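Note to self: the last two entries modelled the partners one at a time, which told us nothing about the interface. This time every component goes in together.
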Amino acid sequence: MARTLFDKVWDAHVVERLPDGTCVLYIDRHLVHEVTSPQAFEGLRMAGRKLRRPDAHIAVVDHNVATSDRRLPIAEPESRLQVETLEANVAEFGMPYFPLLDERQGIVHIIGPEQGLSLPGMTIVCGDSHTSTHGAMGALAFGIGTSEVEHVMATQTLLQRPAKNFLVEVNGALPVGCTAKDIVLAIIGKIGTAGGTGYVIEYAGDTIRALDMAGRMTVCNMSIEGGARAGMIAPDDVTFDYVRGKPFAPKGEALDRAIDYWKTLPADPGAVYDKHLAIDATTLAPMVTWGTNPEAVIAITGTVPNPAAEADEGKRAQLERMCEYMALTPGQKIADLPIDVVFIGSCTNGRIEDIRAAAAIAKGRHVAPGVRALVVAGSGLVKAQAESEGLDKILLDAGFEWREPGCSMCLGMNPDKLTPGQRSASTSNRNFEGRQGPGGRTHLVSPAMAAAAAVTGRLVDVREMN
Amino acid sequence: MQPFTTLTGVAAPLPLANVDTDKIIPARFLKTIKRSGLGVHLFDTLRFDETGAERPDFVLNQEPYRHAEILIAHENFGCGSSREHAPWALLDFGIRCVIAPDFADIFHTNTFKNGILPIKLPREICDQLMDDAKLGGNARITVDLAAQEVVRPNGERIKFEIDPFRKHLLLNGLDDIGQTLQHTPAIDDYEARQRAEKSWMPDISVG
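The predicted structure of the combined assembly is written out below.
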């Protein structure tokens, strides 16, 4: 029977199928960070259990860490305790770990692919919903809760039922000014925040094939914002070229054997999907969210929707609440809205390609008066690469802050937060109420759009900058 | 894990769709290394104002809903992050059952691991239960997991579906890890086979 990419990776990891259809699914890679792991380690300790396979895990601190001087201790006691707890746990349980001052430290979803730890055909999990990012490699990668983190630590498996297959095909040349971020925001706008619930999305079509790995990761990263636990892209030469030479990737003859296997992973002709969506990329424009979930998204040329036009009472109330929280008026155009803060970074857009895109807009310009603009590289290696290209200097000269790697203002667990009422243009992935700090108002955009907002002080169509 | 058999209690109506995990428990409260104690921060922004005072119009600040054990909500409950702090906060507050038309996948899995029963029922039935819940303390709702029934205050019994394996674990309060460890020989075999067939797959070792 013809199988999809998801079917093939799933089938290759089924240890046992239980009578009711639940599967014991083998997990190849487990990524660990400080926020969702302490209770899992504690659970192991209380039950007298060990890591079944220490060499299948990698731990890093990212959510709580300051993006300023790293040699100083973390100021907030609770954040410091969480980081110290992870350090004690990795030592006790023998888990591989990139310490804070290691250049390889960074956001867990940036460093997996960057280090060659995330490879095609693998099952990859992490106690973080943006684990979907690694699906860009052609892996099955999804977020899990802390109980499942403990389960993977103890058994190297998870109890799972197979998801349904959702094919999203994007075809056509991407217009100037549009990026992977605009593609995925447009997809979420179409399917809604629950459109992918119960599915794994496979992104296909010539527009997706034409994306580099960074763009593919941006798309897969936001699968969860459309409700899908995982997003996947079939591995191809772009993937294989990316993997080649990465520190933990197979080398030489082993890589050849791996590629032979990876080439068998794309869906068979005639494979059946349970749900389909087709997107014509030529019709896209740079996107911006106006409301408080990623489905509330419009083109930068658009206007804030009128809740009164919504027939369903519950949805109408939600749209009204969004307008109120975001301090927007129905029918108001989104462009020209003044912003206070710009955040460029996160597991969605914290790769070198994203920083290059921001620097290209920043070059020769200056951050608008009264605007604070942060650039937070996704990892120490991304930061070093950017510095070797002189991007830090361009950004600093333009008045941007150039900070140390971490999750930072994506969720404000460290000191980088919005204050109540502040409005941000952010390259992160969630615009929920209070996500970037209590009372903060988030507009999700691409890195180029964020940089354009920084230098103009307002939401602006990046196509007007050229 | 505490078994879930039957529950009779106050149900709190929360007529909101897309209740995300940042709403259930904001990120600033995730800096704990424990599972317990998060109930005081459940729905923090909805429950408390900027000064930390209760917002009197929020359902869980009203009697009898301060003692709610069941929550009734609209579509896509628990969307967003994978934080298990969301079910931990619900449980710590005293909520053992959430009824909604549907749930986000990761949250749905996380509830089961903590002895919380998520029940999916069609929107129109959730709306009926929401109306029941609005009647307050005299309108207690019963959930019978073994029978897979929700019993309305008027005695009407509503069937719900649940995955048989998850039902078994919940009814008996079984730890998943203990269940899976019974399959250790099969996991050993799988690993041996994988090491032979996918010998290109590197182990992680950090110098």
